[in-house]
Amino acid sequence: MSENTDPLPDWAPLVHGLRTRFRTRDFAAGLELVTAFAAEAEAANHHPDLTLRYGTVDVLLYSHDAGGVTDRDRRLAARFSEIAREREVSANPGESSVVELGLDTADAARIAPFWSAVLGAEIQEDDGDLEIRAHGADAILWFQHTEPHETPRQRFHLDVWVDPREARGRIEAAVAAGGRLVSAEHAPSFWVLADPDGNHACICTATGRS
Q1: Which class would CATH give 108-204?
Q2: Which family does it belong to (predicted)?
Q3: To the nearest 5 percent, what fractions of the chain are helix, strand and coil?
Q4: pLDDT digits (tens, 9 = 90+) for 133-179
Q5: Pairing assessment for the beta strands 200-204 and 156-162 based on DSSP bridges
Q6: Using CA atoms, how far apart are residues 153 and 73, in angstroms rounded to an integer?
Q7: Which letter does DSSP use for residue 87 in this model?
Q8: Global confidence as pTM
């Protein structure tokens, strides 16, 4: 049996960040965990996104100034895992996912202001592409370039970002539910799937991306 050499097994590398979900016994335990995380983050002068719900604490680590994951994030992730283990709280990175909505267009600059106004969010540039973001690392809507064409039946598609360890299971479940695999050309970065009506969605991972 090969030894697991993943330095951060509690964390899923998803778009623009490291994410995980900690399963707590109840709300009070979750609040105590968040308080401990906050103290550690304050000491490190590096502040994650923390989402407290009954029974769960979701964490996103992301360096806004660098536009991605840095050693600061990795160090804090490792420390958060230690804090959780001390409290016998389990991490469930496979439950973390990010859903982005993509819109095909030949002219993102022309339509982005409309979507910015409708969604009440900012237009931001990411590696030359335009996105609509409310805050932090997650895009509400991003624009995929296409050549000018007649209006197709589908212009939106879902990008579902998952832990790379979960991608194959998601794909197999989708196919078992009546879908089909359209393309694995860019795997393991992403796979293109289609539902029974032909509507596309992509299962995406951070693997193989610069």
Answers
A1: alpha beta
A2: Belongs to the pterin-4-alpha-carbinolamine dehydratase family.
A3: 30, 35, 35
A4: 876 556 778 888 888 877 666 677 888 899 999 999 999 999 988 88
A5: parallel
A6: 41
A7: T
A8: 0.79
